[in-house]
Amino acid sequence: MNWDAVGAVGEILGSVAVLLIYLATQMKQTNSVSRFNTTREIMGQFDDLNRLYGTDSTIRQVLAKKGELSADESEQLYTFTLMYCNAWATTLEISWAVTHARAVPLRTPSSTCVAPRKVRAKTQDMSVG
After folding, report:
1. Exposure string (b/e) for 8-20, b if CB count within 10 Å is 16 or more?
2. What local confidence, expressed as pLDDT, does residue 122 receive?
3. Nearest CA to 92 among 33, 29, 45?
4. Residue 33, SS3 per DSSP
5. Which of 36, 56, 94, 128 is the most buried (most CB within 10 A)?
6. Which pTM was predicted?
7. What is the distance between the alpha carbons of residues 83 and 100, in angstroms, rounded to a whole number?
């Protein structure tokens, strides 16, 4: 092997090393942006809940009411609780994924804590009797 061949191999190894360093830097930046966006999305969900609680007096009345709820109030409470539960479920799911270095599975926002309306209706019918 002559010096020209050694130089060519060195140039190839150097360019591969630069490429790997560049890719590692890009991945690190992408992960940072992804974490920031995820955190912003979670905070947005809690902000929406706080805004709803702060601006909708009927929600506050339903949450503070003692005793029987009307069907409309029950639906409002169910919807608010579902939103709250989904916000926490998203937070815990992402926290678990980050802790265990796994990808977060894609899901619909309401798939975490939803009790199907038929099941809820059955349980309400059973509690009436």
Report:
1. eeeeeeeeeeeee
2. 42
3. 45
4. helix
5. 94
6. 0.54
7. 26
